[in-house]
Amino acid sequence: MTIIPTPLAGCLVIQPRVFNDGRGYFFESFNRKRFAELTGFDIDFVQDNQSYSTKGVLRGLHLQKGEFSQAKLVRVTKGEVLDVAVDLRSGSPTYGQYHSVLLTEENNQQFFIPRGFGHGFIVLSDEAVFQYKCDNYYNKEAESGVHYADPDLNINWQADITEVLVSDKDLELPFLKNAPDFGF
Ligand SMILES: Cc1cn([C@H]2C[C@H](O)[C@@H](COP(=O)(O)OP(=O)(O)O[C@H]3O[C@H](C)C(=O)[C@H](O)[C@H]3O)O2)c(=O)[nH]c1=O
Positions of the site: Participates in a stacking interaction with the thymidine ring of dTDP-4-oxo-6-deoxyglucose (predicted)? Predict the structure, then answer.
């Protein structure tokens, strides 16, 4: 496993070691001890999620507020997505900045996003299966987020965002300047 830091403190790209042979491939998709040794983060993930989306679907930017915030370890097991994390930690020197990572079933890359971030992705392939681990349980009442097209964030989604398929809930998310205190 190789850890690639990003300009956002705590956000890490993980490249697992893939073992290829005549049958196909094998890799450890998560190893708590190894992850802790290499990143310094000993994360007790409590919930695994999976979503399926078609091309042009954009999910995000989502978060759970305050004590219900979730660190996530995300990956793609089918297709290709551009994954985006936005730093919403008050006092962070990179507050309001984002980092994007191309996650594909070919590169097997994973993206670790600590608590205090908004998270979303856009599907670039015909279809995508998105799988991720969370270190806190889903809490509907704590759900919030920021609008994916926030001009101040100016996220390059690497796609024509006039053609995206977004949930009504996500379309109603505020720009960051109008957002409530997320408690981060
Ligand atoms: C997140 C979640 C949702 N649900 C239920 C609630 C809804 O009835 C249904 C679809 O939920 P939603 O439209 O919020 O799903 P996404 O738009 O994929 O949301 C996720 O997408 C972005 C990228 C994230 O990072 C978050 O983990 C999460 O917000 O699943 C659950 O039962 N448990 C859960 O943990």
Answer: 138
